[in-house]
Design a protein that fits this description.
The complex is a heterodimer of chains A (223) and B (235). With 223 residues, chain A is mainly alpha-helical. In chain A, 78% of the residues lie in helices and 0% in strands. The termini of chain A are far apart. The chains are: A mainly alpha (223), B mainly alpha (235). Chains A and B meet through helix 3, helix 4, helix 5, helix 7 and helix 8 of A and helix 3, helix 4, helix 7, helix 8 and helix 9 of B.
Chain lengths: 223, 235
């Protein structure tokens, strides 16, 4: 907390002494931020992979599912959290229902788009080589769809890291908590440092995912 | 009574349809903040995207700048603007404008880049000067993606304008934030429903405008769904 006479006290943008003595606060918030994000992306992937495959297989589902998902995606997260509060309270569950939901909306679309981009010739060749449908899906189609799925994971991750800050309004928030503290107490240090940390977290996560993709999926380098 | 019943009653109460905290006033505030921000954003972003896209220069720069922009949480942007500019609409409009710019720059850049080079050659061959070529050949072809960028920005701005209530702004976000502060779950849920409906209405009405603006010949050329570039969610 800033101290000193109220009238002549000017809050510096960064109060180093306070910052140094509160490192643990920032690392806890960062940890919560990362945990909330990882759960959202992990659970989101588990749900959206089968969903995307189903929407790709049954052609009739494709357009309705993607259109419906696009419409749900426009609902502001704070509205979704607010609608859930009477039922699931100010809890991690409320936050994760929203975060997982938005991740699913992004990822499913990318699974479908990735599977659609597999060239017809490749599918014919796989069929000609005697692949059964499941083997063709797992060993030919999914590997070729992975670059698009990875692009989805990157977007979902950067989006989720931003949305986690908003969960501060429902008592969670990771780094968002410190941003809210900065607002409520008119105290610049937590606001500024938490903002910088969350920008850095998003950029580092995005670069790390891009690096993983280059390393793990060499066939996507030119794509 | 269930939460839903109480929310329906809240909507039925005429007291919530008039006065300075009534739904019409809050709707006008929400729309005004959003429209001003998108408009200012468009005036800045579209010329930049169109010119860069036409010449095909600095594309990576434009896209990287907007990528970094996406990493800035909209909530933090609002609070920072509030700390710098104080109370009022100014910090809200500045941060919402900053949020509106990246999708419009990226989409208008890509829109101009994706105009078929053969079509540009043909326009040149027919004697179009550069400005006429841009205005009468490239822009009409770029309209679908251009509009998609404006729609993306508008939906994000409407969503984020809800958070403006945290920095004492008006709009539908007031019901959510006041509902949370006062443990008034009826108001909270009513506000959430209004915000969600407004975001959906923005998306659908701009999709309608897009349909009207896209020339018929181009509409026939394009695949029906999911032509829009990948969308980050800001709020």
């Amino acid at each position: 907390m800033p101290n000193g006479l109220f009238l002549d006290y000017v809050d510096p943008w960064i109060n180093w002494a306070w910052l140094v003595s509160h490192v643990a606060v920032f690392s806890d918030a960062l940890l919560q931020h990362i945990t909330l994000t990882l759960i959202a992306i992990g659970v989101g992937l588990v749900i959206s992979l089968p969903m995307g495959i189903v929407a790709h297989r049954w052609r009739a589902l494709r357009n309705p599912v993607l259109t419906l998902f696009g419409i749900f995606y426009t609902i502001p997260s704070i509205a979704l959290f607010a609608i859930l509060i009477p039922y699931t309270g100010l809890s991690t569950l409320t936050a994760e229902i929203g975060l997982v939901g938005y991740a699913v909306l992004i990822l499913t679309r990318n699974v479908v788009v990735g599977l659609e981009a597999v060239p017809r010739d490749v599918l014919d060749a796989a069929d000609g080589m005697g692949y059964r449908p499941l083997a063709r899906l797992v060993r030919v189609e999914l590997p070729l769809a992975l670059p698009a799925i990875f692009a989805g994971i990157r977007i979902a991750t950067v989006t989720t890291i931003g949305l986690v800050t908003i969960t501060a309004v429902i008592g969670l928030g990771g780094l968002g908590q410190l941003i809210l503290q900065g607002l409520v107490e008119n105290f610049h240090t937590p606001l500024l440092v938490a903002t910088l940390l969350s920008i850095v977290l998003a950029l580092v996560a995005d670069l790390a995912l891009a690096g993983t993709q280059r390393f793990a999926l060499p066939w996507s380098r030119t794509a | 009574m269930s939460t839903l019943g109480r929310v329906l009653q809240w909507f039925a109460d005429p007291a919530h349809w008039s006065g300075s905290d009534g739904i019409p006033t809050r709707l006008v505030q929400h729309l005004q903040l959003s429209a001003e921000s998108v408009l200012i954003g468009a005036v800045i972003a579209l010329p930049v995207g169109i010119v860069l896209g036409h010449y095909g220069r600095f594309g990576n720069l434009a896209i990287n700048v907007s990528n970094v922009g996406r990493a800035v949480p909209s909530f933090a942007l609002l609070v920072l603007a509030f700390q710098v500019f104080g109370l009022g609409d100014l910090p809200i409009i500045i941060s919402l404008t900053a949020l509106a710019i990246p999708p419009m720059v990226t989409n208008s850049y890509v829109a101009m880049r994706e105009v078929d080079p053969d079509v540009k050659d043909a326009a040149r061959g027919m004697g179009y000067r550069e400005l006429a070529q841009v205005l009468r050949v490239e822009l009409p072809l770029a309209v679908p993606l251009l509009m998609a960028g404006i729609r993306t920005s508008a939906v994000q701005v409407v969503a984020t304008a809800t958070l403006a209530a945290l920095i004492a702004g008006g709009g539908f976000g007031r019901y959510i934030i006041d509902g949370l502060d006062g443990y008034d779950y009826t108001k909270l849920v009513a506000g959430a429903i209004l915000v969600a409906l407004l975001a959906l209405a923005t998306e659908l009405s701009l999709a309608g405008v897009e349909r009207l603006l896209v020339p018929r010949g181009i509409r026939l050329l394009r695949a029906p769904t999911a032509a829009r570039a990948q969308v980050f969610k800001a709020a």
